[in-house]
Design a protein that fits this description.
The structure is a homodimer of 268-residue chains. Chain A has two domains: 9-115, Hotdog Thioesterase (Thiol Ester Dehydrase, Chain A, Roll), CATH 3.10.129; 135-267, Acyl-CoA thioesterase, double hotdog domain (Porin). The first copy, chain A, is built from three helices and 14 strands. In chain A, helix 2 (44-59) runs antiparallel to helix 3. Chain A is mainly beta and 268 residues long. The longest helix of chain A is centred in the first third of the chain and has 16 residues, at 44-59. The first copy, chain A, has helices at residues 9-17, 44-59, 190-196, and strands spanning 20-23, 26-31, 65-72, 79-90, 95-103, 106-115, 124-125, 155-159, 175-182, 212-221, 230-235, 238-240, 243-252, 257-267. In chain A, strands 1, 2, 3, 4, 5, 6, 8, 9, 10, 11, 12, 13 and 14 form a 13-stranded antiparallel sheet that branches. At the A-B interface, strand 3, strand 6, strand 7, strand 10 and strand 12 of A face strand 3, strand 6, strand 7, strand 10 and strand 12 of B. Strand 12 (238-240) of chain A pairs antiparallel with strand 7 of chain B, so a sheet runs across the interface. Chains A, B: Residues 135-266 form the Acyl-CoA thioesterase-like C-terminal domain. Chains A, B: It holds the Pfam family 4HBT_3C. Chains A, B: InterPro entries: ACOT8-like_C, Acyl-CoA_hotdog, HotDog_dom_sf, Sec_Metab_Biosynth-Assoc, TesB_ACOT8-like_N. Chains A, B: This is Thioesterase family protein.
């Protein structure tokens, strides 16, 4: 579906998340089928990464995003899309923008994001990364009958143990840790963190709920990761009348938190 | 500052969060000094509650909010304000709106919110409410030299123990639980939950950081509380180069989670 046929994992990520300027504030994007979920729709994290990159390119600020808050309004489709970026506020510490994704005149998602420098050195970390065996000691689901194609060719997953839901025996505890990286170890930039918070199987599957759709997702971006795998902590603690939160933490191999997110999702 | 002088706690909350329709999509609000923080600015949770009520009134949907994601762009002031509400998507399960708050032509905050019914009964709660002594066995900070006036006349706080920051001895652990309610026990509606997630002293004060400004705040609304106090759990786990998250859970006296939030804030 892309006019540029990528030849490597490196290219695929860049080509598929890059939009081109049409007029000031309006950008053209082609969403490919290379990030499709099992229901044959582009993954929501891919949508977020493409909208974020389009916003960063449009704003032209030399900073990574600080946060993004996205609302998903309807299912995205493979094919052309329009990204509209409106600068909302040029603050001293945060530049804020409002971004919309449209397909065939239909609003697919709206996002507010903030970009800016981090000038303060104060850092206090009271959390800790997931306790996972080394990636090469973990299970590659594609070796064990896991899904392939689309999204599953774009991200590498490594599980410490076989998830209960994958064997038809959900554990009842919707929490799991796993390793992730972009396919082939491609460099992870800030935009890709927006993808990686929504690229793994949802933990609510451990409650036997196999379909969950994201309504709203907020990501905090803390730093770019060191090269390597991303230790990913996913959990759902509160399922209330059909809606549930899903928390995600991404930690790099040097043990630093690189991003965290929370989403509100609805059972399908 | 209000044209209507309220005569009770009941009135204050309703008057101060209610805006009046000017033209379709545009509403007039008067922000009073009754919700001021110690820096003499209207509290961010009050701003959120007023924007949410304005959005709900404008949309005219018979449902409570499901979520609200607000970005604070500049300091709010006591005085007149304009709320602009744009319906973004009328979905089958979620009605989404984009809302802006302006003062003197200056953009103060932008918010995306979703409203809708909860038709699914499935509920699984894996968390638990804070373990707090009964409210009447807890400390009322106003009896112990705590601040009064403004915000502190609008919300009742009860602490299990004297916070370290209040005695000049921050504990080093930015987490605390407390009871809260609207002043005098006024009924808590869904909009007020948007206030209560941002109405208590920030836990980062236990790191000796006495000034923290919210950049972005996302709230999930689960249910209206039963009458009584709200057990409030606040924590900051990750302070990264001057920015930190703050998580909040609100539990009613019957032990049910009524709302949860996460904000990204910047040290002052």
């Amino acid at each position: 579906m892309s006019s540029t046929e990528p030849t490597s994992d490196e290219d695929v990520y860049l080509v598929d998340t890059t939009s081109t300027a049409r007029t000031p504030g309006v950008r053209d994007l082609v969403m490919t089928d290379r990030w499709n979920t099992p229901i044959e729709r582009p993954n929501g994290g891919y949508v977020l990464a493409a909208m974020l990159r389009g916003t960063g390119d449009e704003l032209g600020v030399p900073h990574d995003p600080l946060y993004a808050a996205i609302s998903y309004l309807g299912p995205p489709s493979v094919g052309p899309a329009t990204i509209e970026v409106e600068p909302v506020k040029q603050g001293r510490r945060v530049v804020t923008a409002s971004t919309r994704l449209l397909q065939d005149g239909r609003l697919v998602a709206v996002m507010t994001s903030g970009f800016g420098p981090r000038e303060d050195e104060r850092t206090t970390e009271l959390g800790s990364p997931p306790a996972l065996p080394a990636p090469d000691q973990c299970l590659d689901p594609s070796d064990h009958g896991g899904p392939t194609g689309g999204l599953f060719d774009r991200v590498d997953h490594r599980f410490a143990t076989v998830p209960g839901w994958s064997t038809g025996a959900p554990s009842g505890d919707p929490a799991h840790d796993l390793w992730q990286r972009l396919a082939g170890g491609r460099t992870i930039d800030a935009y890709a963190l927006g993808f990686l918070v929504d690229s793994a199987p949802p933990p609510v599957m451990e409650l036997g709920e196999m379909a969950s759709m994201t309504v709203q997702l907020t990501v905090h971006f803390h730093r770019r990761p060191t090269p390597g795998w991303i230790a990913t902590r996913l959990s759902t603690r509160h399922l209330v009348t059909g809606f549930h939160e899903e928390d995600c933490e991404l930690w790099d191999e040097s043990g630093r938190l690189v991003a965290q997110s929370r989403q509100l999702a609805i059972l399908g």
